[in-house]
Write a structure and sequence with these properties.
It is a single chain. This protein has 347 residues and is α/β, with parallel strands linked by helices. It has 2 domains: 9-185, Rossmann fold (3-Layer(aba) Sandwich); 202-339, no CATH class. The chain has 15 helices and 5 strands. It has helices spanning 9-18, 36-48, 62-68, 81-87, 93-100, 112-122, 144-155, 175-179, 191-199, 207-216, 221-231, 233-248, 260-278, 298-315, 324-339; strands spanning 25-29, 75-78, 132-136, 161-167, 182-185. The chain has a 5-stranded parallel beta sheet with strand order 2-3-4-1-5, with helices on both faces. Strand 3 (132-136), helix 7 and strand 4 form a beta-alpha-beta unit. The longest helix is centred in the last third of the chain and has 19 residues, at 260-278. It is globular. The termini are far apart.
Length: 347
């Protein structure tokens, strides 16, 4: 992170711990929204810094500037093309030309050509400093061929070289990759830290709206920030609070603001929280007053269980719906039946 965008407090504490890590390969793992990319980049910046401190990179030297402007010769960042464009990392001339010409869309995976380029990068001499760094994020976006391309170099790095693999889904990585890295589980911020960070991101609104979105994202502040930026803080909070009862009434339009995958994720959260209420536990993603009155008893729990499995199956194909509008209608209809404890028909 640059001096203009300092690390959040909970990430800075982890950075100081990881700076003492002696190994060459580190795996940052945890659910989305906890700052894996930001922490990984801050760690790479500190390792490459010419005048590092106990707090991390100095932020003033030529190395820090090179990382900030995405041109450091001793840093290679492997990202999906779509994410590279979003985060401001340059693409190679061939890829940039193809995308600008409209020949194809940016890839959502880390391509094998990028991995091969990274392996070639590791065999070059350092331009300065004490090490070179390869940062891979999200590491689960490597397919088997891409991952195996990096595997040998990850196992036996040449010269002074360090790897940082950052992931939101460590279970999707090859076991051979995981076994060659020292794992670090991301630390969750407490609510006060997360709310303070969100309030400092330029969001205009009230504290209660921040709490609603933070709860909607399971306490993950970066996801809450994205949610607020896409729909506005107060509008997103109000829409989220109204969602469960709108779905129970059969209002398909309540889901239309989401992508198919996010619509299914929202329904999974409704299912989870209704289930919690049925079992006498506190809901996690919604206030109890926001949830619809569902039937109780063994039949209701069985219906929620079937609905949960049904949503999990739908989630596997959510990014490629044949017809998104029709999909939303089916999702809402099945949600209504589950909340009424009625058997779900075969999809």
């Amino acid at each position: 992170m640059s001096a203009q965008n300092p690390l959040a407090h909970w990430l800075h504490r982890q950075l100081q711990d990881l700076l003492r890590y002696p190994g060459h390969a580190l795996l940052l793992r945890g659910p989305s929204g906890l700052g894996q990319y930001e922490l990984g980049l801050a760690l790479a910046r500190a390792w490459l810094c010419l005048q590092p401190t106990e707090q991390g990179a100095c932020g003033q030297c030529a190395s820090c500037h090179g990382v900030d402007v995405r041109t450091h010769a001793d840093l290679r960042v492997l990202l999906p093309e779509a994410l590279s464009l979003q985060l401001g990392w340059p693409l190679d001339e061939k890829t940039q030309g193809e995308l600008e010409a409209g020949k194809r869309k940016p890839s959502q995976e880390i391509k094998v050509d990028a991995a091969r380029d990274a392996v070639a990068f590791t065999q070059l001499s350092r331009s300065g400093g004490n090490t070179k760094v390869v940062l891979v994020y999200p590491a689960e976006r490597m397919n088997t061929v891409t991952a195996n391309t990096l595997l040998k170099t990850l196992e036996e790095p040449s010269g002074a070289l360090r790897f940082i693999l950052a992931t939101d889904a460590a279970d999707r990585l090859l076991p051979t990759l995981r076994s060659r890295c020292q794992g670090h589980t991301m630390v969750w911020p407490d609510e006060s830290e997360a709310l303070a960070w969100l309030a400092g991101q330029g969001l205009v609104g009230d504290l209660q709206s921040l709490r609603v979105l933070l709860a909607a994202c399971g306490g993950r502040p970066a996801d809450a920030l994205e949610m607020a930026e896409q729909g506005g803080l107060q509008e997103s909070a109000q829409r989220w609070q109204a969602l469960p009862k709108a779905v129970a009434r059969g209002e398909v339009s309540a889901l239309s603001v989401f992508s198919p995958s996010r619509a299914i994720a929202a329904l999974q959260k409704i299912c989870h929280d209704v289930w919690c209420l049925q079992l006498g536990a506190s809901p996690r993603y919604f206030a109890a007053s926001d949830l619809p009155q569902a039937k109780s008893g063994a039949a209701a729990l069985a219906a929620l269980s079937v609905w949960s499995r049904d949503l999990a199956a739908q989630a596997r194909h959510a990014d490629h719906p044949f017809n998104a509008g029709l999909m939303f209608e089916v999702l809402v209809s099945r949600a209504q039946r589950a909340l009424r404890a009625e058997p779900l028909p075969r999809p």
